[in-house]
């Protein structure tokens, strides 16, 4: 697989997109997974000065735990490498190889990474605004540390309030809230209580985005499965990698029900029989 070096070209989301073959992109030097969006953000010019100041502070807080790359001059020497659409060794010309390409490998590959950076332009605020409008970018960011997730949720909530006509950020708020809730339950920081968000609200916030999104059927399958079974998105990515061969046989018209059923069986097999009826998470 050939690598691409930025050389004298500016480092920007469009360059990531040019390198990306569908499995995501990393910075080759340290294996950092790059989260980017070529869809422009609404911009900050229409945001009132008070809200703009709050967003700048929130973005600075996020930057303490998550790299935000937007400076062209600093990024010119970065070498980008595309990630594969399927595990190494799979026969790309076989039927299995072709069907596995339909899986959201950018999300699956993100789940196996430890280092992340957000790539954009025009500064930290607009860089975060761009990626948080895209549900797939948010799901990739759900693989980051808990402190980072809390900062991203705070930022998304502030943007949602500042741009109340843009419902896209409510989708980010709800996805991040779910991931945070599950993680905190796992750590014993939050006990059996009502989920932070309800399935209906999530569907309303994400339905429009999933209709126009690349691989929209899998997007709906993933968030539906996570909410119904109370599973973290960061866990689902790993489960999808381990079961990619079988999941690739799912057709769009059978999603998300088939996915929810399959993952539910895996979860039941993981639980000790004596604790299945007393699980911390309420299945709904």
Write up this protein.
- The structure is a single chain.
- The chain is α/β, with parallel strands linked by helices.
- The chain has helices at residues 13-19, 49-63, 72-75, 95-100, 105-110, 124-132, 135-141, 146-162, 168-186, 199-212, 216-229, 233-242, 244-247, 257-270, and strands at residues 4-5, 25-27, 32-36, 67-69, 79-82, 116-119.
- Strands 1-5-2-3-6-4 form a six-stranded mixed beta sheet, sandwiched between helices.
- The protein is globular and about 50 Å long.
- Residues 1-9, 88-100 and 273-284 have low confidence and may be disordered.
Oligomer: single chain
What is the terminal-to-terminal distance? Answer: 44 Å
The number of helical runs is 14
Count all strands and give the number. 6
Strand % is 5-15%
Contiguous runs where pLDDT drops below 50 for at least 5 residues: 1-9, 88-100, 273-284
Please tell me the overall pLDDT: 81
The percent range for helix content is: 40-55%
Structural class: alpha/beta
Give the topology string: H per helix, E per strand. Answer: EHEEHEHEHHEHHHHHHHHH
How large, in whole angstroms, is the Cα Rg?
19 Å
Strand line-up of the largest beta sheet: 1-5-2-3-6-4
Shape verdict: globular
Q: Report the biggest beta sheet as strand number plus sense, adding barrel if it closes.
A: 6 strands, mixed
List the helices and strands and how they pair.
Layout: E1 4-5, H1 13-19, E2 25-27, E3 32-36, H2 49-63, E4 67-69, H3 72-75, E5 79-82, H4 95-100, H5 105-110, E6 116-119, H6 124-132, H7 135-141, H8 146-162, H9 168-186, H10 199-212, H11 216-229, H12 233-242, H13 244-247, H14 257-270
Parallel strand pairs: 3-6, 4-6
Antiparallel strand pairs: 1-5, 2-3, 2-5
Helix pairs in contact: 2-8, 8-9, 9-10, 10-11, 11-14
């Amino acid at each position: 697989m050939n690598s691409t070096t930025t050389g004298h070209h500016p480092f920007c989301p469009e360059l990531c997109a040019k390198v990306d073959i569908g499995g995501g992109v990393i910075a080759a030097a340290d294996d950092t997974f790059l989260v980017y969006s070529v869809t422009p953000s609404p911009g900050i010019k229409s945001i009132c000065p008070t809200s703009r100041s709050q967003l700048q502070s929130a973005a600075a807080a996020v930057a303490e735990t998550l790299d935000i790359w937007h400076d062209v001059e600093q990024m010119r020497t970065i070498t980008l490498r595309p990630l594969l659409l399927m595990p190494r060794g799979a026969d790309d010309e076989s039927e299995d190889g072709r069907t596995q390409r339909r899986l959201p490998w950018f999300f699956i590959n993100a789940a196996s990474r430890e280092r992340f950076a957000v790539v954009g332009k025009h500064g930290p605020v607009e860089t975060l605004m761009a990626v948080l409008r895209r549900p797939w970018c948010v799901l990739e960011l759900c693989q980051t540390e808990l402190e980072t997730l809390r900062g991203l949720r705070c930022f998304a909530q502030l943007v949602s309030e500042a741009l109340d006509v843009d419902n896209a950020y409510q989708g980010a708020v709800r996805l991040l809230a779910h991931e945070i809730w599950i993680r905190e339950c796992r750590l014993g920081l939050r006990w059996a209580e009502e989920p932070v968000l309800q399935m209906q609200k999530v569907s309303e916030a994400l339905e429009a985005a999933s209709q126009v999104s690349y691989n929209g059927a899998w997007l709906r399958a993933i968030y539906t499965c996570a909410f119904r079974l109370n599973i973290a998105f960061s866990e689902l990515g790993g489960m999808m990698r381990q079961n990619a061969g079988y999941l690739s046989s799912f057709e769009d018209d059978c999603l998300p029900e088939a996915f929810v059923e399959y993952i539910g069986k895996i979860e039941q097999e993981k639980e000790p029989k004596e604790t299945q009826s007393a699980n911390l998470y309420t299945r709904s």
